[in-house]
Every structure is written in structure tokens, then in C-alpha cells.
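In this supplementary section we document a worked example of the pipeline. Step one takes a protein sequence of length 124 as its only input; no multiple sequence alignment statistics are reported here. Step two produces a three-dimensional model, which step three serialises into C-alpha cells for compact storage. The input and output of this example are shown verbatim.
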Amino acid sequence: MSNTRNTQESQSSQKSQDSQSSQTRKPSDNAADDRPSPMEVLRQARGQLEELTGMTAESVSSFEQTEHGWALEVEVLELERVPDTMSLMASYQVELDGNGQLTGYRRVRRYERGRSDPRRSGGR
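The serialised model returned by step three reads:
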């Protein structure tokens, strides 16, 4: 009987502590929950870039979280040609704020789909 009462008191005490800690939690404690997930950021970035440029975003080749939000490099189909290996592609550097809203972009490279980057000296 004594063990049952101790268990009930312990559970009651735990519930009381849980409710107090949830009541004293600041709104900023849940700020991380309000941020979009990395996959949501990727989807938003591709969609926003497509809407602004009118070109198809094919892939994301670089993605990182920065101090101010997110930085991506997105591969875009700029000019479709036949055969497909001759289509013109471009890499766009895209910057987003912490909420995943596009704040800027610029083209950093243009190339034919079938061509690889030239080898750099030094084995890189």
C-alpha cells in the first residue's frame, strides 16, 4: 500500500513539474519549431527561383545554413537543345532568409550539359 501511494505521489509531482515548466516556457523556446525544415527550404528555393527566372531548376548542388539563413547553388536548364547533352545549363547562387524566403540570386556559371568542369592543377 505504501509503495502505491509513493508511486502516485511521484507521478502527481512529475505532472505538476511538467505543467509548470510548460507554463514558464518562453515563446522563443519554440522558435526552432517555427523554422522550415531543410527539405522545405530546398523546395521553396527551387520554386521561387523558377518563378523569378522562368527556367526549370533541375537540382541543388550545394546547400548550407548560414548566419543569416541559407545559401544554395541550384542547377538550372537555361536553353534546351537537341541532343540533350548540348543543352545550356547554369549554376545559380541563391540566398534565403531564415524562413526560406529568397533574398537574392545570381548566375555564377554557364555550361553545356554534356561537358564536365576542366581539371584543376594540383589534383583537385
